[in-house]
Design brief:
Belongs to the alphaproteobacteria porin family. The protein has 115 residues and is of the alpha+beta class. Helix content is 23%, strand content 42%. Strands 1-2-3-4 form a 4-stranded antiparallel β-sheet, with no helix packed on it.
């Protein structure tokens, strides 16, 4: 039994060793033809594009905000000015299902303040 498994393993390795190499240019041509361009998902609204190979539409959005503020200090040791910054990245995915549209929203907010 063990010798049969060993001979099957050796045979499988021999078959793999005999595979024909493919030039890199041919591989690149195959991969380039397989990739489809992103299409706009007009049914979901502005800014959505379709994810290749699925029915899911995705929108990537965000914002960056920076403020400089000047305030009246309450004490002499307090600062009277400073920067405030914030950023947001949001992913909005929508997939049609038999029960309606499945919507997934992921949002990351960050804020910082420096006096």
């Amino acid at each position: 039994m063990a010798s049969n498994l060993l001979s099957i393993g050796v045979l499988a390795l021999a078959v793999l060793a005999q595979s024909v190499p493919v030039p890199a240019a041919e591989l690149l041509a195959r991969n380039a033809a397989a990739v489809e361009p992103n299409r706009a998902c007009t049914s979901q609204g502005a800014g959505f594009f379709s994810i290749p190979g699925s029915e899911t539409c995705l929108r990537v959005s965000g914002r960056v905000r920076s403020d400089y503020r000047v305030v009246q200090p309450r004490t002499r040791s307090e600062g009277s000015s400073g920067f405030r910054t914030g950023a947001r990245v949001q992913l909005d995915a929508r997939t049609p299902t038999p029960y309606g549209t499945l919507r997934t929203v992921v949002r990351y907010d960050t804020r910082g303040m420096r006096n």
